[in-house]
Amino acid sequence: MYFNNIFAPEYYIATTIVAETIVVLLEIHFIKKHQLISLKEIFITLTRYGLISLGFIPIFYIFKMIFQISSYTVNFNMILMVLSTVATCGIYYLLTLFVTKDKTLHYALNLVLAKLKRN
Length: 119
Known about the structure:
mainly alpha, 2 domains, 5 helices, 0% strand, flat, membrane, transmembrane, Membrane protein CarB, transmembrane helix
């Protein structure tokens, strides 16, 4: 695309999505063909994380309304909105994973707690 003087970011994003989709489909085919692992648990986990992360959307719009952001000009208000959104989304995500008793989060917490107890 660069050699054809196509510089619009939309085209680069679209081609990257297509390329990544092809790679993932090839990986799935390879894993199933050689019966390396069961993909069911991976897709269940991916779906759970995807559904939990949908909560980020209302959080973003709530902070956008609170800080009255109407344009994407970088100013102090915008920086405060971004920092507040990132912090709130992080807290929301960790709390949701903790409440749903996510195995990965609890494994990581146990590692950290074991490390702290040794010191």
